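Attaching the record inline, Q. Sequence:
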Amino acid sequence: MTAPVSPSSAAGAANGAGTISQDELKAQVGRAALAYVAKGEIVGVGTGSTVNKFIDALATIKDQIKGAVSSSVASTERLRALGIPVFDSNEVDELGVYIDGADEIDHHGFMVKGGGAALTREKIVAAQSRRFVCIADASKLVDTLGAFPLPVEVIPMAARRVMRQFEAMGGIAQVREKDGLPLVTDNGQHIVDVTGLRISDPLAFESEVSQWPGVVTVGVFAHQKADVCLLGTPAGVQTMHFD
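Structure, as predicted:
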């Protein structure tokens, strides 16, 4: 077993003075995640504002790792700009750890992800990794998934039919737009965002929706759930372990 990198800033903690911003909480967990990065390995890297803090922290130990497999074009660009080599996922059989954020995470490690429209590649890299470490601020911890609009990546011609299926479940679905046009993912597909859901059985929900024709990926991460969550709180980084 390879030893973890242990930089002095691996676990940021609050100093107890004043109010800590959400941005500062994200930076705390980004630094704390370095403790799960093993020397000489290739790291799975997610996407989003919290992951950007992790990428910045990862740059401080870039000479101790081989590089990264990235889940999005945006993360790839940030990694390379900081001098961290990026490998194609097909060049790597298995990753020791995947570090990514979440839009929601419950007390079982099940998550909703995809606010940054990278859910398909995130799920691929998560499935390729032995361990999923979620990094998030405390506002992302929920009892039941569904308050955050659920992202679903779809083939464009199937969008309306998929939306009708969610409406039959009681949800309100709409195609995500950017600059007045449907947002196009890194994979050339569209995103349907669904509100009004209460996902009480994430495993069953993910399995069902994944079988709908035209669905590329649903943003429920239950089969690829987190093993560990580093939660940024005003009192410091709280570590949650899931069976």
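The chain is about 25% helix and 25% strand. The chain has two domains: 22-142+222-241, 150-217.

More tomorrow.
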